[in-house]
């Protein structure tokens, strides 16, 4: 393929992926918001909490893909899903970089997903399984940290007057 065809194919892939993502994971409405049509929801910017759940949903999809590929000993798929997790991890790191505990979890996740890729490229089922297990534990611990962080009061803001 020449460069123009490759660029056109890539642009088509990005647009179609975005469109499918909006259909599969539309922005969520809170209970106190009036009902909106799908077209209105698609044209309005997505708030940060929905953005986070969007990226987490993508990470979950790739994690499930790894589990499926592990069961089938499909090392190419394992490596590709692990590489996608590494890419998503970089995006998440940029979005949530203000939380130092989260940053530490991201760094660990990056090391483990890289190890997962290496083990898959070596077609080492035991090493791949161990790395996936460590990745799963990493996800659980990170979400525990995020829940604890969300429950703590923000001491940088003055308390509201009663």
Ends distance:
67 Å
As a percent range, the share of helical residues equals over 70%
CATH architecture of one domain: Up-down Bundle
Name the CATH superfamily assignment of one domain: Cytochrome c/b562
Shape: elongated
Computed structural class: mainly alpha
Query: What is the fold-level CATH name, i.e. the topology of one domain?
Result: Four Helix Bundle (Hemerythrin (Met), subunit A)
Strand content: under 5%
Mean pLDDT: 73
SSE ordering: HHHHHH
Q: Radius of gyration, Cα only, in angstroms?
A: 19 Å
Task: Tell me about this structure.
The protein is mainly alpha-helical and 162 residues long. The chain has a domain at 49-151: Cytochrome c/b562 (Four Helix Bundle (Hemerythrin (Met), subunit A)), CATH 1.20.120. It has helices at residues 3-24, 38-43, 48-72, 75-95, 100-121, 125-151. Mean pLDDT is 73; it is low at 4-50. Residues 1-31 form the signal peptide. GO terms for molecular function: electron transfer activity; heme binding; iron ion binding. This is Cytochrome C. Keywords: Signal.
Give the tags:
162 residues, Cytochrome C, Cyt_c/b562, signal, Four Helix Bundle (Hemerythrin (Met), subunit A), iron ion binding, heme binding
Write the layout of secondary structure elements.
Elements: H1 3-24, H2 38-43, H3 48-72, H4 75-95, H5 100-121, H6 125-151
Helix pairs in contact: 3-4, 3-6, 4-5, 5-6
């Amino acid at each position: 393929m020449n460069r123009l065809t490759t660029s056109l194919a890539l642009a088509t892939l990005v647009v179609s992926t975005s469109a499918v993502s909006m259909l599969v994971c539309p922005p969520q409405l809170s209970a106190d918001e009036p009902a909106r049509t799908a077209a209105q929801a698609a044209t309005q910017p997505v708030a940060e909490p929905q953005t986070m759940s969007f990226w987490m949903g993508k990470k979950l999809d790739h994690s499930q893909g790894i589990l499926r590929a592990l069961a089938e000993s499909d090392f190419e798929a394992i490596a590709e899903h692990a590489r996608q997790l590494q890419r998503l991890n970089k995006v998440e790191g940029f979005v949530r970089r203000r939380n130092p505990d989260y940053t530490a979890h991201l760094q660990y996740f990056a090391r483990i997903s890289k190890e997962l890729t290496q083990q898959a490229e070596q077609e080492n089922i035991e090493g791949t399984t161990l790395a996936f297990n460590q990745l799963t534990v990493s996800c659980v611990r990170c979400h525990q940290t995020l829940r604890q962080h969300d429950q703590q009061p923000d001491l940088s803001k003055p308390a509201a007057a009663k």
